[in-house]
């Protein structure tokens, strides 16, 4: 187990390397969805699948190895082996109830509050989205909607600044929290206020605006570990079998100019259900 000083130093180095809210990537990536403290699956992916990796957020809470998972992911980032996006669980609004703060207190003792604050500051600097080879958009939750309910642009995400701890900015918040729905337009999300389900028209308009093809994202738990939405315009990949997800077979995706989903353990091509209605 890393010491408090090692963890605090790692987090400071991650913050120093921050490259803003939107990052551009080139090449071929192994994308990994929600891990939620599933160290065994992370280790399996690192052994069986080639880097560089693209992590889609939700490293902590629910499973009991969130500290090990998030520090491993950050270490890979500092070594230039991974791009690391923010999930809705990289936030104090989740970690107090979700398990990560308790986990830190169990593992680190009385300095857990101090270490958590360092995590909180670091989470606020993680990018919200990545564009791979100008074709594929990676983010944790979904396409954010403006006040007039049209899709926000990546340029708007890039410009977001201010206090992003929660995050407070509505476009940043929705990028971490929204989900696709098998519908045409949009509807309020059962996840809570300020969160939306976005439909086919939103996805089509978003890709038209950016000349992109696929949004790859995590966030939605599906027992199969993956799902395809909106005629292939959105792909969900889920990579945790920790905590409440023990029956899931974790998936990863190869991302280049398209998105291909595979079972993380067997390496077989995955059959992902289409237009699932999870809410
Ligand atoms: Mn999530």
What sort of overall outline do the alpha carbons produce when their principal axes are compared? globular
* Protein structure class: alpha/beta
Total number of beta strands: 14
Binned strand content: 15-25%
What letter string, H or E per element, gives the SSE order? HEEHEHEHHHEEHHEEEHEEEEE
* The named CATH superfamily: Metallo-dependent phosphatases
Biggest sheet: strand arrangement: 1-5-6-10-12-11
Helix content: 25-40%
The radius of gyration over CA amounts to 17 Å
CATH topology: Purple Acid Phosphatase, chain A, domain 2
Largest sheet: 6 strands, mixed
Number of helices: 9
In the CATH scheme, the class would be Alpha Beta
Q: What does this 3D model show about the protein?
A:
- This protein is of the alpha/beta class and 279 residues long.
- It has a single domain, classed as 4-Layer Sandwich (Purple Acid Phosphatase, chain A, domain 2), CATH 3.60.21.10.
- The protein is built from nine helices and 14 strands.
- The strands form three sheets. A six-stranded mixed sheet has the order 1-5-6-10-12-11. A five-stranded mixed sheet has the order 4-3-2-13-14.
- α1 crosses α3 and α1 runs parallel beside α6.
- The protein is globular and about 50 Å long.
- The mean pLDDT is 97.
- The structure holds manganese (II) ion.
- The site of manganese (II) ion (MN) has 7 residues, from loops.
Layout of helices and strands:
Blueprint: H1 4-16, E1 22-25, E2 29-32, H2 39-48, E3 53-55, H3 66-78, E4 82-84, H4 92-98, H5 100-108, H6 112-123, E5 129-132, E6 136-139, H7 154-158, H8 170-177, E7 179-180, E8 186-188, E9 196-198, H9 200-210, E10 214-217, E11 226-229, E12 234-237, E13 251-255, E14 259-263
Parallel strand pairs: 1-5, 2-3, 3-4, 6-10, 7-9, 10-12
Antiparallel strand pairs: 2-13, 5-6, 8-9, 11-12, 13-14
Helix pairs in contact: 1-3, 1-6, 5-6
Manganese (II) ion is lined by residues 34, 58, 87-89, 140, 219.
């Amino acid at each position: 187990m890393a010491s408090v000083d090692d963890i605090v130093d790692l987090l400071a180095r991650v913050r120093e390397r921050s490259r803003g809210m939107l990052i551009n990537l080139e090449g071929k990536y192994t994308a990994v969805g929600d891990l939620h403290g599933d160290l065994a699956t992370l280790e399996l992916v690192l052994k069986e699948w080639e880097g560089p990796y693209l992590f889609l957020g939700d490293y902590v809470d629910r499973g009991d190895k969130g500290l090990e998972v998030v520090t491993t992911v950050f270490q890979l980032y500092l070594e230039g082996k991974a791009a690391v996006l923010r999930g809705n669980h990289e936030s104090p609004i989740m970690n107090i109830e979700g398990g990560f703060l308790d986990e830190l207190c169990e593992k680190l003792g009385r300095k857990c509050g101090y270490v958590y604050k360092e995590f909180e500051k670091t989470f606020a600097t993680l990018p919200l989205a990545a564009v791979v080879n100008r074709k594929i958009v990676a983010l944790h939750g979904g396409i954010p909607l403006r006040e007039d309910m049209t899709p926000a642009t990546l340029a708007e995400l890039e410009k977001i600044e201010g206090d992003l701890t929660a995050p407070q900015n509505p476009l940043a918040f929705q990028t971490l929290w929204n989900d696709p729905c098998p519908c045409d337009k949009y509807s309020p999300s059962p996840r809570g206020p300020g969160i939306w389900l976005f439909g086919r028209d939103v996805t089509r308009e978003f890709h038209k605006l950016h000349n992109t093809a696929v949004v790859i994202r995590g966030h939605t738990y599906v027992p199969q570990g993956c799902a395809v939405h909106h005629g292939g315009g959105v792909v969900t990949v889920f990579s945790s079998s920790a905590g409440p997800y023990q029956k899931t077979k974790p998936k990863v995706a190869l991302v280049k100019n398209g998105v291909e989903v595979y079972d993380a353990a067997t390496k077989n091509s995955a059959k992902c259900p289409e237009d699932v209605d999870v809410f």
